[in-house]
Structure formats: C-alpha cells, structure tokens
Amino acid sequence: MRPSNPPYLGAAYYPEDWPLEQIDADIALMKEAGCNVMRVGEFAWSRMEPEEGKYDFDWLHLVVEKLGAAGISVLMCTPTCTPPIWLTEKHPEILFVRADGKPTYHGARRHTCPNSPVYREHCARIATKMAEEFGQDDRIIGWQIDNEVSALTWNRPCVCPVCRKKFAESMRKRFGTIEALNAAWGTDLWSQTYQSFDQLPIPDPDTWHHPSLQTAWSEFNSDSYVEFVKHQADILHRLTKHPIGTDMMPTHVVDYGDMHRALDVVQFNHYNVMENLWQSAFWFDLCRPIKPAPFWNTETQTCWSGSIATNGYRELGFCRANTWLPIAMGGEANLYWLWRQHWSGQELMHGAVVTSAGRPMHTTVEVREVAGGFEKAAEFLSGTRLTKSGLALHYSHKAGWMLEWQPMVNGFNYTGAILDRAYRPMIQAQLRPDVILPPADLGDYRMIFSPFLPCLDEAGLRERLLAWIEAGGIWIVGPMTDIRTADAAKFTHAPYGSLEEWAGVYCKYEIPGEPRDFGIRWSDGRESKGSVWYDALEPRGSEALAIYTEGPMKGLAAVTRRKVGDGQIVMLGTMLQPKDLQMLLIMLGQIAGVQRAAEATEGLVVVPRAGQAGKGMVVVEVENRPAGLVAREPVVDLLTGREYQGGIDVPAYGVMVLREI
Q1: Cis peptide upstream of residue 338 (ω within 30 degrees of 0)
Q2: Checking DSSP bridges between strand 385-386 and strand 37-40, what pairing results, if any?
Q3: What is the end-to-end Cα distance of the chain in Å, rounded?
Q4: CA-to-CA distance for 146 and 77, rounded, in angstroms?
C-alpha cells in the first residue's frame, strides 16, 4: 500500500517488548483507532545489536512490512538514547559524569556523554546500519534521531575529562587569550582571575559560581547536543531520502534554532495538563517559524502521563483538543506516547491508546473521533497555511541561561514569565504571534515584542532590529531587555547597551518588583500597577504613555514611546498587567496593521488559514469551558457539515474547522 498522507495520527510503538506474533493484533487495533503512522526503534539498540558488531534487523523489517501493508507509515528512530549494556561495560568512559565527579549507571536513558568520541563512534555505526537497511524504504516518512536530547540533569552538563577539555578549548576559540576572557567576565572580583583556560572550573550547582562561567557552560552544553545530533544527521542525510529531525522538549536547555540548522523537520514532545494546555500553543508558535516544513508533534498523552504513578485524570474532550491543537497551529502530525502500555519497566503507569492487555482506553473513542475529523478536513488542512498576523514575540535560549544563573528578582523564571506575562495575554486577546528566536528574519513582521531579552548581541540582532525599526517596524521592548553583554556582564556606560539612545530615555533608578508592585497612571487617566521590575525613565526625546504614581519612581515614566525613522519604539520600564498589555498591543497593532485572529472568548485558540483549498480558521477550546466567536462571513464546519454566520458557540474542549463558503 502507499504510505499514508498527512495529517498523521499515531503513537510510539515498541514491538521489541512484545511477541512478534502479536503485531497483527496490534495493527488491527491501530486501524480501528484510525492511526496512520507509528514511531519505532528509539530504545531498541540491544535488540538491533545484541552483541558488538552483530546486527539483527529481521524483526524490524517485519514490523515495517506489516505496518506498511496495512497503510500505516513509520517514523524510524535511532536508538542512541539507550546504549546496550555490553557497550557501557566495555567503555564506562562513555557515561555521563555529574558535577560531583560520579558517573551515572546503566539502566536508565540519556546517561551517556554527548562529546565522548567512543560513544559517537558507536552511535555512527548503528545509525549507518539502520540507514543502509531502511534509508530508501517508501513506507518510512521520516527519521527521529535519539530521544529528547538534553543533559541527564537538564541544564547541568556532563563534566567528564572529555567535556572539561572540550569546554576549555571552546573558550580558547571564543576569546583567543585567557586575558580576553578575564576582561570580558570581570574576574578580578573575588580573585577569580585565571592564568589558563584549563583552570576554568566545572559548574557545580552547590557552589556560587560566576554567572558568566555558568552561562558559558550552559551554551557549551547546548552546543554539545547540537553536535551530537548533527553527527547522526550527516549520516542519515547521506544514506536516506526522508526528512530528519529530533524530538525536543519544552525547555530552554538546548537551543532550538542551533539544533535545526542541520535538520529538516522540527519534532516536539509535550505533556501539558488541563490547567496549562494553552502553554503547548506557545511551543507550537515557536516550532512553526524555525523551518518552512510543517512541524511534527511527536509525543503527547491520550489521557495522563506518568512513570511510577499517574499525574492526574483528564476530563473527556481533553484528548480531542490536545490532539487537534498542533494540527490547527501548523503541524502535520500528532503522535501519542504510547501505543500499548508497557507491561514492565519504568513507565508502567503512563497512559496510552490501548492498555497492556490490548484493551482500548476510555480516550480511544476520542482518538477515533479525531482520526475521522482529520480525514474530513484533510483537503483543507493540506491546501492551506496559517495566515501570518505580522506580530512576533522574542524568545531566547541565551536569555534563559543568563536569567537562570542570575534571575535578578526572587522567584523569577524566564520561560514562565514569557508564557504567563507576555504570551498568554496575547492569545487571550486573539493576537496570533510567531514566537521567534534572535536569528530569525524580521522581514515578515510589523510589530515585535521583546520582553526579558537581556542580550541583544545574538546573531547580529542589535543592528538588524534598528534597521527594521527605521524601516517602519513597531518595537515593544522591555523590561529587563538589553541589560547584559554577550558574556552575561553589565554594561558600564549605562544600564542598557543601546536602549537609552534608541528610545530617547534616561534611566534614573532600577527597582526590583519584589515584595510589592507599584502603581502607574496612563495618559488617559487609567490607574493600574506594574510588576516584576521597575525602571524609572526620564523622557529625553520620547513621550510618556504612563507614569509611576508611587515609590522612588513617582512622577517618572513607566512606559515611553518615540518615533525612530519610519517606525517607533515603545519601551516598558515595568511588566504590564495583562489587560494593560492587551490594550497597548491592540492599539499599536492597529497602527502596524496587525489584525486580531477573531472576535472570540479567551479560552479559544483561533488560527486563520488560507490557500488553494480556501480560506477559514481552525478553532480549538483549551480551557475546558464553553466559548464563542463571531464569524463575519458564512462558514461551514468541515467536521459536522453545519453552516454558521455571526455568533458561534463552541463547547468545552470543542474543535471546529471553519471554511468560508
């Protein structure tokens, strides 16, 4: 049979854990559930290579053949997250070493050093063998390299001798001389001056290390995993004809932009729950602009996730909304973890499509429903693309590293602040942003919001931003933006690198927003409060849109605006309350030509689409409560065939694919 077509709906399948005679029964259940793709191979190294140099792919060929005969495509994975025990016993030097100097042990996953030349050699061998076996197979739609690459202890890198030496060499390459590093980091403080790169210490979480050192190690950790994945990607690109990716987790630990320079498709895993399902939309808005190819949501739950215990019941409808959301937002695949619950091992309690006994779970009916909906809407989904709004929100992994080691305010979390204080107000106001990384081309955008972006010296962003503003862009900037050098140090000439000059302000004071918030008054007389951080701004060529009404900042500007070339800069000295931010963004959006997606209630994600298959929108309710929107043109819901115009009621966790008639 021909390979299946998108949108893809499927799951992670582990036939190595079950008798091969069971494949036919599993496939019958897959067809009944409406699945058209399965992800296989990611943890099966010991089954593929039971002894060094002795390979067994017969069982995997059987799986691919039987799935393909049933019209189910395969996402093939390299198994390098879980090395076989013969490899770790023969080469214990490949094991990840923690900051305390202790290596990890066999029996988990992600427990190897990404920089180990021995481990990379073995990874290259298994990837090469797999590519030779399956690289030209038409039943395969793509490859996943490894699984959820990041440090075993998240942002705590391996510090084995190989990594320590490689880190020192990376700093030598970056700075040239140890004197240049000392000057950039300001190591005279606390007698931290180094005489050689080999003296640079490891980032021990129990030691109060220099934030420049910590940030450099975080960047090195990300680079290490980028190189680890590229090593396999180069092999697969040479020997296969399919798109290649690696499944990423929602974290700033590994730079998404750097990772995907050598990859073809963005793959993403998430396990958001009922209370924060909307957060997955943020990551989809980040995945989408990285590559022109539609992203793949390679892991999520049908119901609950969990390893030794479940992490909570999901109300009926959650699976529907959760599965449709990536497709609505520009993806072309949604895969569950996992197909059949494990019968043994570490993750027995994780939800799945069917139980370990092969019985459908209570959410399988929603999987079938979604599969039917994908089929009904397939022509519209494949023949349209998201309509760009012209709005972007900056996100930076480097910002995450800097603000992890120097959060500035007690309890501040960079990604959490971006999500809760910037992104959520946007989508609740039905503003549809692309979440962009600093290297992104700015040409598609008319308005960009850059909060909590301490360093503008990434990928030439400083120069590109100014040129974009002068050409007519509207930049909403701050707070806590342009306040650090590329080496996580302060500027000494001013609180910012360029903002005082660009925005036409003078910063008199800087006040942390803890333990209290200070009042502000807008130019129209509205009273409100700031949050998180307070820069007291004295306008010098700019106008004050809001002023502080109390504290040491009283009478000084909290928000300013200045025309720069054909564009303008709106500077936030403090983080605005959600309603204030929404009003400001909508007002500026009207000037910039940034349209709201729809007139709709807050819990509704509305995604306009257009193309050769027509014009319309996909609508997903994500907060488990009734919602509504207004259709200004006559539309038909492709899932039900019902026609609407004007007000439309959307049930809790409801989904509609509305095409204009």
Answers
A1: yes
A2: unpaired
A3: 35
A4: 7
Burial 188-197 (b: 16+ CB within 10 A, else e): eeeeeebeeb
Instruction: For residue 1, name the pLDDT band (cuts at 50, 70, 90).
Output: low
Q: Which pLDDT value is given to residue 206?
A: 81
HEC letters along 511-569? EECCCCCCEEEECCCCEEECCCEEEEEEECCCEEEEEECCHHHCCCEEEEEEEECCEEE
Return the active site residues: 148, 299
User: What integer is the mean pLDDT of 186-192?
Assistant: 95
Q: What is the tens place of the pLDDT at every residue in 25-66?
A: 999 999 999 999 999 999 999 999 999 999 999 999 999 999
The total number of residues shown for the chain amounts to 661
Distance CA 497, CA 506 (A): 13
Residue 510's H or E segment, with its range, is strand 505-512
What Rg, from alpha-carbon coordinates, does the chain have?
A: 26
Cβ 524 vs Cβ 508: under 8 Å: no
Edge-to-edge strands, sheet with 37-40: 244-245, 140-144, 73-77, 37-40, 8-12, 333-336, 296-299, 267-269, 247-248
Bridge partner list, 529: 519
Q: What are phi and psi of 540, to 5 degrees?
A: -135, 80
Evaluate the CA torsion angle 23, 29, 32, 33 in order and state its sign: negative
Look at residue 495 in the predicted model and tell me its pLDDT.
97
Tokens 């927003």 belong to residue: 513
Residue type, 4: S
Dump pLDDT digits (tens) for 216-228.
999 999 999 999 9
Look up residue 405 and give its two tokens: 């080691």
d(CA 586, CA 590): 6
Burial 377-396 (b: 16+ CB within 10 A, else e): beebbbebbbbbbbbbbbbb
Task: Assess contact for 520 and 463: CB atoms under 8 A.
Answer: no
Residue 328 tokens read as 């609505």
Report whether 235 contacts 78 (CB < 8 A): no
Distance CA 371, CA 336 (A): 13
How many beta carbons lie within 10 A of that of residue 238, not counting itself? 10
pLDDT tens column, 495-530: 999 999 999 999 999 999 989 999 999 999 999 999
- On whether the pTM is more than 0.85, the answer is yes
CA distance 341 to 360: 11
